[in-house]
């Protein structure tokens, strides 16, 4: 995706006029979220406090069930917290009524999801126009802006293609253009690269990073992939609904002598994250092999998935070697 990444970089540099609204500071204070299902109570967030600055891209990592998606939903105004506060550019979201919160989501937050939410019966350009229709922009302005945004993500030549005619990476870049349609100050992306190969995923993350570093947006991304996380400005680690640490990957890449308790701890944490992911994938392979032996999973299906997992493990081991693990 090298040429596509270069096209994106050129687009973001030359089309700054499309992005008039800079990012805002988002601050999460003592955030608690409890889900109740009958008598069952699940505490998804347990007093999370963290802030996100304009002009930066932050990745949120953690195991499944750690609260990553719940935190994004609170920041984006998709759901309301049980306790605590989300301060969005000075506005406390819990003070907004339902109608104002709907308007906030439409105008102030761009959402990018793992499952690419493009309307299959609409072209790329029409998908990008859709949020602008909801915001009441005039037709002429919508069409021109949609083309400009597709140009910014390197897909101007695919404007009249339908989602099924685009690759997974191209669809996700269209989805980012959709998220940018109303020029929101904050972009939240929930596992946006989970279904993509590494090279394509890298291009998507570089695009999101460009929106932060070149345009000044506030970008927050959840990911399981350490190779994606190290391309962001900061990593926040969630476990069991709590922030258990945060560090800056760029500091690790300088390979300077680390200060005691600072980058050394962060470096160790990153190595442990990668090792834990490798161990998790190895356990998944063992379970698949056992399920295949018992006849619970077709052999061909198991073999295909095991090959994918082994490729991921090999890539993670390469990453481990590159960071001195």
Can you describe this structure in just a few lines?
With 325 residues, this protein is an alpha/beta fold.
How do the SSEs run, as a string of H and E? HEEEHEEHEHHHEHEHEEHHH
| Dominant shape | globular
Q: Could you tell me how far the N terminus lies from the C terminus, measured between alpha carbons in angstroms?
A: 28 Å
| Major beta sheet, strand line-up | 6-7-8-3-9-10
Helical amount: 40-55%
How would you describe this protein?
The chain is of the alpha/beta class and 325 residues long. The protein folds into 2 domains: 2-247, P-loop containing nucleotide triphosphate hydrolases (Rossmann fold, 3-Layer(aba) Sandwich); 263-322. 46% of the residues lie in helices and 20% in strands. The chain is built from 11 helices and 10 strands. The chain has helices at residues 2-14, 68-76, 98-108, 124-134, 139-152, 168-179, 198-213, 226-229, 249-253, 263-293, 299-322, and strands at 26-37, 40-52, 57-61, 83-88, 91-92, 109-113, 186-190, 218-222, 234-239, 242-247. The protein has a 6-stranded mixed sheet with strand order 6-7-8-3-9-10, sandwiched between helices. Strands 2-1-4-5 form a 4-stranded antiparallel sheet. Strand 7, helix 7 and strand 8 form a beta-alpha-beta unit. Helix 5 (139-152) packs across helix 6 (168-179). The longest helix is centred in the last third of the chain and has 31 residues, at 263-293. The chain starts with a helix and ends with a helix.
């Amino acid at each position: 995706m090298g040429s596509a990444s270069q096209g994106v970089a050129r687009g973001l540099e030359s089309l700054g006029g499309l992005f008039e609204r800079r990012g805002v500071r988002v601050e999460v204070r003592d955030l608690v979220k409890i889900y109740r299902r009958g008598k069952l109570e699940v505490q998804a967030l347990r007093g999370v406090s963290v802030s996100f600055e304009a002009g930066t891209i932050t990745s949120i990592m953690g195991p499944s069930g750690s609260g990553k998606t719940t935190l994004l939903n609170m920041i984006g105004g998709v759901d309301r917290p049980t306790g605590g506060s989300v301060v969005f550019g000075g506005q406390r979201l819990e003070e907004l009524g339902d109608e104002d919160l709907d308007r906030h989501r439409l105008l102030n937050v761009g959402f990018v999801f793992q499952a690419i939410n493009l309307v299959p019966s609409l072209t790329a350009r029409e998908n990008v126009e859709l949020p602008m229709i909801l915001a009441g922009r005039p037709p002429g302005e919508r069409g021109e802006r949609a083309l400009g945004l597709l140009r910014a993500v390197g897909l101007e030549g695919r404007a009249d293609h339908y989602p099924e005619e685009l690759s997974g990476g191209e669809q996700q870049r269209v989805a980012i253009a959709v998220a940018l349609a109303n020029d929101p100050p904050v972009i939240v992306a929930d596992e946006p690269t989970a279904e993509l190969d590494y090279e394509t995923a890298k291009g998507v993350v570089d695009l999101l990073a460009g929106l932060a570093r070149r345009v000044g947006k506030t970008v927050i991304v959840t990911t399981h992939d350490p190779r994606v996380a190290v391309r962001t400005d900061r990593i926040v680690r969630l476990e069991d609904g709590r922030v258990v640490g945060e560090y800056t990957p760029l500091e690790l890449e300088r390979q300077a002598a680390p200060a005691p308790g600072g980058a050394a701890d962060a470096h160790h944490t990153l190595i442990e994250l990668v090792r834990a992911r490798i161990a998790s994938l190895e356990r998944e392979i063992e379970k698949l092999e056992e399920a295949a032996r018992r006849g619970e999973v077709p052999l061909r299906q198991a073999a295909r998935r095991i090959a994918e997992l082994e490729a991921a493990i090999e890539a993670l081991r390469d990453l481990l070697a590159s960071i001195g693990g």
